[in-house]
Amino acid sequence: MNKYVKRYCIDAMSGMAQGLFASLLIGTIIKTLGQQLCRLSNNAVFQFLVNAGNFATDAHVVGAAMAVGIGFAMGLPALVLFSLAAVGSAANVTGGAGGPLAVLLIAIISAEAGRLVSKKTKVDIIVTPAVTILVGALLTVLTAKYIGIAASSVGKFLVWTTKLHPFWMGILVSLVVGVALTLPISSAAICAAFGLTGLAGGAAVAGCCAQMVGFAVLSFRENRWGGILSQGLGTSMLQMPNIIKNPKVWLPACLTSMITGPLATCLFKLEMNGAAVSSGMGTCGLVGQIGVITGWFEPSEVAIGHGAAAISPNALDWIGLILISFVLPALLCWAFGLLFRKIGWIKDGDLALD
User: Fold this and answer.
1) In this structure, what is the dihedral angle of CA atoms 77, 81, 82, 84, given to the nearest 10 degrees?
2) Buried/exposed 21-51: b ≥16 CB within 10 Å, e otherwise
3) 272: which DSSP letter?
């Protein structure tokens, strides 16, 4: 069971997230940069950035990148891996707004079908890609549309519920997505699969920042500046071995996320309307913050489907983004850490990174 959980829920989802980063996410950043520069001067170089971003964010390209990322993470034979490009492209386009979840499920099944026949015949170069693509195409025709509708419906429900109950959902979304970020699963893939944008996306960003910046500051006395960079701009997943040894070390970051989440939704009205994958990234490479900023100027298709529109951010928007992303996670987690160290729940060395 542990083997399959790791293969399908950890490795495959992480690979899908990397495929999203290498296509939709970076493409959105490049396109938004080009669009903003074109407002200053509509020259060929800036227009090239827009075109390059459009190429990378095309639904066919994004689907192919996700599927290949899944296959690579699963360690598949080359012919299966390459064939997944066609499978992912078809599943993502057919799945619509819920395409990432369709790609994840269909790519995994198609990959395993291809792996079963890989190198079993003398005409492997024909049989393996044929089986992989045909299985993927059949599953796409039969299920992708409905998987996409289901995933999109869940995403819309979360977005709608967060608008309706911003305080309680701010706590819940921030805590759950933040915990997922630190666990060895992909919070980014989860957010992408369900199209988490708007206030719900903002709460997710808050929860991820609470974990990453929180652990970076909480463990400063053990890990110093190297820990600030590796956790604050890298991943809080580095703390999992310490969490397993002493689960209480997780409390400061979790409590922080339960505070910053509702502050993001109720006070600052922080919305993440960029690519949904950014909602689950926090401060990793500042992707969460870039997603919020790009969403202000150029909302993603998923966000537009949830009712988002481009805005001109005011001072409160920028202040909210900075406070929720960096200042409050650092201060709150530091304060909780002092308390828990004082009462003996966290001891010196408990947060040291190997």
Assistant:
1) 140
2) bbbbbbbbbbbbbbbbbeeeeeeeebeebbe
3) B
- Please report which confidence band the pLDDT of residue 1 belongs to, taking 50, 70 and 90 as the band edges: low
Take residue 217 and report the two structure tokens written for it. 């500051």
The one-letter code for the residue type at 246 is: N
Q: Where are the alpha helices (DSSP H) in 96-245?
A: 99-117, 124-139, 145-164, 166-182, 187-194, 198-218, 220-232, 240-245
Contact 190, 180 (CB under 8 A): yes
Spatial contact of 103 and 91, defined as CB atoms under 8 Å apart: yes
Please give the torsion angle defined by the CA atoms of residues 256, 260, 262 and 267, in that order, rounded to the nearest 10 degrees. Answer: 150
What is residue 186's predicted lDDT score, i.e. its pLDDT? Answer: 75
140: nearest Cα among 106, 98, 99: 106
Measure the CA–CA gap between 240 and 345, rounded to whole angstroms. 17
Angle at the Cα of 309 from the Cα atoms of 304 and 315, rounded to 5 degrees: 135
Joined together, the tokens standing for residue 249 give: 């070390």
How buried is 299 (Cβ within 10 angstroms: 0-12 exposed, 13-18 middle, 19+ buried)? buried
In whole angstroms, what is the distance from residue 204 CA to residue 187 CA?
Answer: 9
Are 69 and 60 a contacting pair, CB within 8 Å? no
Kindly tell me the sign of the dihedral angle through the C-alpha atoms of 187, 17, 297, 164: negative
Over range 276-299, report the average pLDDT: 90
Q: What is the pLDDT of residues 17-48, one digit of tens each?
A: 889 888 888 888 888 788 878 878 888 889 99
Q: Looking at residue 118, what DSSP letter applies?
A: T
The token pair at 95 is 């799945």
User: What pTM was estimated for this model as a whole?
Assistant: 0.80
Measured CA to CA, the distance from residue 41 to residue 300 in angstroms comes to 24
- Position 311 pLDDT exceeds 70: yes
32 or 264, higher pLDDT = 264
Total residues belonging to the chain: 354
- pLDDT, tens digit, 9 for 90 and up, residues 300-309: 888 998 889 9
